[in-house]
Write a structure and sequence with these properties.
Length: 374
């Protein structure tokens, strides 16, 4: 790079999974790529730490292999209604998900990007000065600028891409416990004021994540609302402190402007209960690099809308169930009465838009079951 400017084909602000995925895919296609992030790796985030089967598959295109000793597999999802007593489970139609620590996952992405020659600018602050993007006092000169700086993206604000079609803010917390996983499914407990997800991240380690509309709900108080889970964790060793983050369901009106594009949570996000945050970011990264190759970011906008359709639908369904206890009980009873519907919903969410077989007739079936579940 020129000593006076940051010069590259693609300059990425944000070194999380989505930003690094763009960098890896782009450098594999011959682009000169730089990634700037004020944080230093490995970068942690309060999340459920489960990678769905589509995410595991997407990692192969990045050249990242997950070895069995590093991960713990899970084969589906189970919903428990702690207020209504019903339970329903579904397994993945193909493949399996894996649980692993977010820091381990991020370290793998960093290692792969570095090996391919991506310029990694850790501890580098990116600012906007007189309309010019500047990294550590040096102007950025790049054909393409990518904002991958998360849910509170400054790049999104600088590019005036803030207007949204809708948004819903919730709050997440996460903690790890030294205990052997008790199921090969990720367990999702629907409680009075929150949802709690318990999933394996090691042979003797479980990640517990709480999502709630209330920023004041304490992690320990949330656990008391799920006696079954609290009993499993009683007497176990907490491996770290509770870590929190804001979570959003947000859809932007546009994810690009001229030669600048947003990816990952900067480009909008889905509710954490879908489990598709990272997977969505990796799919967006692939679509973005393809659009850059075609020289037209309108292609990325269309792909971004398309690949987010089912996760957004699932997010709205999860939020509706969270906000209305009666609807939640009826919905879970309806799914328990016809488990194949839950399986369709789960597998349609992680399939590509072309592969998804969930259609209007399935929605009608679910609606009928909902009406008759009272």
């Amino acid at each position: 790079m020129n000593s006076l400017v940051h010069s590259s084909d693609i300059f990425i602000v944000g070194g999380g999974p989505a930003g690094l995925a763009v960098a890896i895919l782009a450098v594999q296609r011959g682009y000169r790529v730089a990634v700037a992030d004020y944080a230093r790796p490995p970068i942690d985030k309060a999340c459920g730490e489960g990678l769905m089967p589509d995410t595991v598959e997407a990692l192969k295109a990045l050249g990242i292999a997950l070895r069995s000793g590093e991960t713990v597999p899970f084969r589906g999802i189970r919903f428990h209604d702690t207020t209504g007593g019903s339970s329903v489970a579904a397994r993945f139609a193909t493949g399996e998900g894996v649980g692993l620590r977010r820091t381990v996952f991020h370290a793998k992405l960093v290692e792969r990007a570095a090996a391919l020659g991506v310029a990694l600018l850790w501890g580098a602050r990116v600012t906007l000065q007189d309309g010019q993007m500047v990294c550590e006092g040096r102007p950025v000169r790049s054909r393409w600028v990518i904002g991958a700086d998360g849910e509170a993206s400054r790049v999104r604000r600088w590019a005036a891409l803030q207007p949204t079609r809708y948004e819903k803010i919730r709050f997440g917390q996460r903690q790890h416990f030294r205990v052997a996983p008790w199921s090969d499914l990720v367990e999702v407990y629907w409680a009075r004021d929150c949802q709690i997800v318990a999933g394996p991240v090691g042979s003797e380690e479980v990640c517990v994540a709480v999502t709630s509309r209330s920023p004041g709900l304490k992690f320990a108080d949330a656990l008391t609302q799920v006696p079954e889970l609290a009993a499993r964790l009683r007497g176990t060793c907490a491996l770290d402190r509770v870590r929190g983050a804001r979570a959003a369901l947000r859809r932007l009106k546009s994810v690009y402007r001229h030669g600048l594009a947003l990816v990952g949570d900067a480009s909008g996000s889905v509710d954490p209960l879908t489990g598709e945050g990272i997977g969505l970011g990796l799919k967006q990264a692939a679509a973005l690099v393809k659009a850059i190759e075609g020289g037209d970011l309108r292609l990325y906008q269309a792909a971004h809308d398309r690949i987010g359709r089912m996760p957004r639908f699932m997010s709205r369904l999860m939020l509706a169930m969270d906000g209305h206890s009666r609807l939640r009980r009826r919905s879970l009873r309806a799914l328990a009465a016809e488990p194949s519907l839950f399986s369709y919903l789960l597998n349609a969410q992680i399939a590509s838009p072309v592969e998804s077989k969930f259609g209007w007739h399935d929605a009608v079936r679910f609606g009928w079951r909902l009406v008759s579940a009272g």
